[in-house]
Amino acid sequence: MTDYSIPHHADGPPRHFWRRGLAFIIDIALFYLAIFGALFVITILSPWNIGFGALDYTECQPAPPSQLTAQVDREWPLEFGLVRTNILCRKTYLFDSTFYTFRSETAKPKGLYTWSKWFAVSADENGAPFSAADLLPRLVAQGLLNQLPSAIVIGLFIYLSAGGRRTPGKRLLGLRIMNSYGIPPALHRTARRELLKFTPLILATFANLLLTLQMFLKPDYLSELIAQSRDMSATNLPLSLILPLVLVIAQLVWWLLPFMAWRGQTYYDRMTDCIVRRANEPASGSNTAAR
Questions:
Q1: Are 121 and 101 in contact (CB under 8 A)?
Q2: Residue 129 gets which letter from DSSP?
Q3: How distant, in Å, are the alpha carbons of 13, 19, 162, 170, 190 from that of 177?
Q4: Residue 274, H or E segment
C-alpha cells in the first residue's frame, strides 16, 4: 500500500501536522465560545452592558442643527434626487459607559433598492465632534478593547500549556508540549512561545490600529472623512489593502513553512526550546531530537 503521509526529518520528532492543526482549531473555537458565552451571561444577568454585539443598547434620534451638520452640507452639497439624514446615536457600552455617534447618510432611491453613502464620527451629547486630541485616546482605548477577547485567548493558551497542563484540543488529540529535556515548560517559557506563535497577528492588530489612527492625527480630520465618504476614496487605500495581505501571508509562512521544510520544530518552538509530542511518546531522547 502506498504511504501518502508527509515524511518527517530523520533526526527530529514527527510533525503531527494534522493533529496540531485540528487541536488548534478546537482550542480557538472553544475559547471564543467560552468568552462570548460569559459576556452573554454577564449582559443578561447583570445591570452592566459590556458591549456584547446585538445586546448593546443603542438609541438614535435626528441630530440637531450644529456646526457639524453645517459643515457636512457645505462640503458635501446635495445633488438632485439625493436625500440626507443626520442622526445622533446614544450607545451604552462597557459597564454602562455612554458614547455618542453622529452619522450622516446621503441616499438616493433606485427602484427596489436605495443607494447611499454615509460617514460617522464620535461626538458629545449635543452632536459636536471631538477634536483630534480628544478623539485619539478614545480610539486607542476602543481599538485595544476590541482586541480583549483575542488577548484572553492568548492568555488561555499560555496558562493551559504550562506546567504539564494541556489545552482541550491537545488533550483531545493526545498531544503535549515539553522542553528539550522532556520536562513540561514553565509559565514564562509558554508565554514566550505563544506570543511568538501569534506575533504576525499581533503585528497585524497594531498595524490596523495605526492605519485607523493616522487620519485622526490631522486637525482637519472631519473634512477628510467627509471627502472620503463623498468621493468613495481613501487616503491610504493601497496601504490599507496591501498591508493586511502581507501580514496574512507572513502568518501563513510563520505557521506553515516549518512543516513544509521540517527540522523537528516550528520556528517558535525552536526559539523557546519546546517540542510537541504525542502524550504517549516517551520523553527519553528529547534532548537529542531537538538539536
A1: yes
A2: B
A3: 12, 13, 8, 9, 9
A4: strand 274-278
111's grid cell: 427602484
Rounded CA separation 203/259 (Å): 22
Query: What residue type is assigned to position 222 of the chain?
Result: L
Each residue's pLDDT tens digit, 161-186 = 999 999 999 999 999 999 988 899 99
- Angle 114-115-120 (CA atoms, 0-180°, nearest 5)? 110
E strands in 67-209: 83-93, 97-110, 113-123, 175-179
Q: What are phi and psi of 231, to 5 degrees?
A: -95, 0
Domain boundaries, given as residue ranges, for the chain: 47-129, 144-290
Instruction: Give the Cβ contact number of residue 73 at 10 Å.
Output: 14
Q: Is residue 64 within 8 Å of residue 124, measured between CB atoms? A: no
- Lookup result for grid cell 511518546: 281
CA 57 distance to own-chain centroid = 23
- The one-letter amino acid code at 136 reads L
Of 204, 198, 95, residue with least CA distance to 155? 198
| DSSP SS3 for 3 | coil
Residues sharing a CB contact under 8 Å with residue 74, sequence separation 6 or more, in sequence order = none
pLDDT tens track for 264-288: 889 999 999 999 999 887 665 444 4
What is the pTM (predicted TM-score) of this model?
A: 0.76
Q: What values do phi and psi take at 3, rounded to 5?
A: -95, 110
Q: Which residues contact 212 (CB under 8 A, 6 or more apart)?
A: 139, 143
Beta carbons within 8 Å of 17's beta carbon, 6+ residues apart: 6, 259
